[in-house]
Structure prediction request, 144 residues.
Amino acid sequence: MHLNLATRDLDASVAFYSTLLASDPLKKLDDYALFVTEQPALELALDFSRDAQAGSGQHFGLVVDEVDAVDAQISRLQSAGYRVDVEREETCCYANQTKVWATDPDGRRWETYVVHEDAEERSAAETTCCQSEETIFGGRQCCA
Prediction:
């Protein structure tokens, strides 16, 4: 998969994605960085843009095979000083999952998750499933 994301702060974004992907960029220039990873199979390009804005109502995800990989992601993100939201065995998007959420410097929400099993309901009432960082940490109700 290839993603190209614009960012207002390339250095902060490189630091975030180096932590999220557990990888250094293959290329790093003044206005561009390129990550190429095998797990997940991803080519992520970051372009500097003073006008970069994260899209509303979207998020991105990295699926992993086991809870230990989610726990490792939690440790990496927290050790680097990023705020995380952890959900353990919660129902979200018709699946019971364990996941960690983090937000990049431009406001894009990323989840790293493992699916335990499919579920009949979209999400449990008490979950923070797919909510924005502002909603989760700001105390407001989602979808009101």
User: Anything to note?
Assistant: The beta strands are 2-7, 27-28, 32-37, 42-48, 59-63, 85-92, 95-103, 109-118. Residues 136-144 have pLDDT under 50 and may be disordered.
